Amino acid sequence: MAAEDNKALVRRFVDEVQSGGNTDLIDEICSPEFVNHSAPLGLPADCEGIKIVTAMFREAFPDSYFSVEDMIAEGDKVVTRKTFHGTHEGQFMGIPPSGRTVNVSLIDVVRISDGGWWNTGP
User: Fold this and answer.
1) Coil, strand, or helix at residue 73?
2) Which helix (H) or strand (E) holds 26?
3) CA-derived radius of gyration, the chain
4) pTM above 0.85, yes or no
């Protein structure tokens, strides 16, 4: 796939899954060989784990969304610098709701293969 196609796939994941909560899309775009090297302890590090993590975040931060600050593609890799925004309104990993606004900056590196995405490693 071309770099722009790879970026479009990652953008779709950010917009529709991470920001929109559409976990059904994961089945379409997540490679069966996907490994999430930053999966929370006790959760599967595969596509099903991404569904669980997405649901956890949406439950705890129902107004959450991601803003993409930068997205760079080269070869089969896409690097995204983004910010998570949300209000802590539900329990999250044992932490009771605080009502506080949360903003977390992060960087993801994914590898695209045959139209699906894979994480490249920690």
Assistant:
1) strand
2) helix 24-29
3) 14
4) yes
What CATH number is associated with residue 16?
Answer: 3.10.450.50
- The parent domain of residue 74 ranges over 3-119
Q: How far apart are CA 40 and CA 36, in angstroms?
A: 9
Domains held by the chain: number: 1
The per-residue pLDDT for range 22-60, each reduced to its tens digit, is: 999 998 888 888 888 888 889 999 999 999 999 999 999
Contact of 66 with 58, CB cutoff 8 Å: no
Residue 101's DSSP bridge partners are 87
Q: Tokens 């379409």, residue? A: 28
Element (H, E) at 113: strand 101-113
